[in-house]
Automatic annotation (TrEMBL):
GO terms for molecular function: neurexin family protein binding. It is found in: Cell membrane. The keyword Protein biosynthesis does not apply. Pfam families: C2. PANTHER family: BITESIZE, ISOFORM I, SYNAPTOTAGMIN LIKE 2. This is Synaptotagmin-like protein 2. Residues 51-173, 188-319 form the C2 domain. GO terms for biological process: exocytosis. Keywords: Cell membrane, Exocytosis, Membrane, Repeat. GO terms for cellular component: exocytic vesicle; plasma membrane. The lineage of its organism: Eukaryota, Metazoa, Chordata, Craniata, Vertebrata. It comes from the Eukaryota.
């Protein structure tokens, strides 16, 4: 049924009620590096201001330096955020979509107390032209709040595949309300098909105890509709950890499937060393990555657990399972020795 069967032990001192601050900090640093935290295009938006006004900018690609350049010139007639003081403190932010994780954001300086800010700044991306042509540019304008309660002022989205690259002139564009998909929180990164099973200690025979400790079986079947980072597709693989254990013993990965946005992995992993009570404090993190020589790029992932925000009494940011992921994990807990099948959307962790 599976291409590869891996077996590793779940290593965590579950009897240690108050882990030392030092060891806890180390675990959190490891988790952070694994998860590859991804910011939403609309993160930090607390405003309800209607989009209005225009933005002037130009696009260019520097062939010699392999650099995409966004020349942000100015904005006019932006919405007023603080009506009492009649002010806005605007800045411009850009993303290359859909791969926000890989390219990150760029932003201009903040211009205070104006609805007609002048920037004359160039936002730069080091990126191959053929990769750029399968991206979209999202350019948005925001009011900067000292407390981080930033307000969305408008945006424009450009399909770079159809852009006229001979046009290097500054042009004016009307700012539009945010797209419906963004308002609804849609961030489609693909869907993973998998099955999981919990085998309690001693449930497969009395003598000798079989198994001597509980086991969690994870069968990663396939992923569909991955982000396409290159015209040829994507070279993907799946990483697996059982958190809070971030040791090398916990880490497992599938083989790399090349040039395919719908990879079939058919890979099974078995983690032993579980007691039934561990299931409420552990979290299976499965992340999908694009493989390149110098560095791997995060594509999306899922976290299977109870999503309580706590692990062995400690507050952790990775215990954040969605309702679907929680339901999937709970079903496994209630159906010992049975494979539970699921189809779960990948997300930004």
């Amino acid at each position: 049924e599976s291409d590869t069967a891996s077996e590793i032990s779940f290593q965590f001192n579950r009897h240690k009620k108050t882990p030392s601050i030092g060891s806890h900090s180390s675990d959190m640093a490891s988790v952070s590096s694994v998860s590859g935290s991804v910011l939403s295009v609309y993160s930090g938006d607390f405003g309800s201001v209607d989009a209005q006004g225009t933005v002037e900018f130009a696009l260019d690609y520097d062939e010699k330096n392999r650099e995409f350049q966004v020349h942000v010139s100015q904005c006019k007639d932006l919405a007023v955020v603080d009506e009492k003081k009649g002010r806005s403190d605007p800045y411009v932010k850009t993303y290359l979509l859909p791969d926000k994780a890989r390219m990150g954001k760029r932003k201009t300086s903040v211009k205070k107390r104006t609805v007609n800010p002048i920037y004359n700044e160039v936002l730069r991306y080091k990126i191959e032209k053929m990769v750029l042509l399968i991206q979209k540019l999202n350019l948005s304008v925001w009011h900067n709040d000292p407390l981080g309660r930033n307000s969305f002022l408008g945006e424009i989205e450009i399909d770079l595949a159809s852009w006229d690259w001979s046009n290097r002139k500054l042009n004016w564009y009307p700012l539009k309300p945010r797209s419906l998909s963004a308002v609804n929180g849609v961030d489609h990164r693909g869907v993973m098909s998998l099955s999981i099973k919990y085998v309690p200690p001693g449930s497969l025979g009395k003598w000798p105890k079989n198994p001597p400790s509980g086991e969690v079986h994870i069968w990663v079947k396939d992923v569909k509709d991955l982000l396409q980072l290159r015209p040829s597709g994507v070279d993907s693989f799946v990483k697996c950890y059982v958190l809070p254990d971030t040791s090398k013993k916990s880490y497992q990965k599938t083989r790399v499937i090349k040039r395919d946005t719908n990879p079939v992995f058919n890979h099974t992993i078995v983690y032993d060393g579980f007691h039934t009570e561990d299931l409420k404090d552990a979290c299976v993190e499965l992340t999908v990555w694009d493989h390149e020589k110098l560095t791997n790029h995060f594509l999306g992932g899922i976290r299977l657990g109870l999503g309580t925000g706590l692990s062995y009494g400690i507050s952790v940011d990775w215990m954040d399972s969605t309702q679907e992921e929680v339901a999937f994990w709970q079903e496994m807990m209630l159906a010992a020795n049975e494979w539970i099948e699921g189809l779960l959307p990948l997300r930004s962790l």
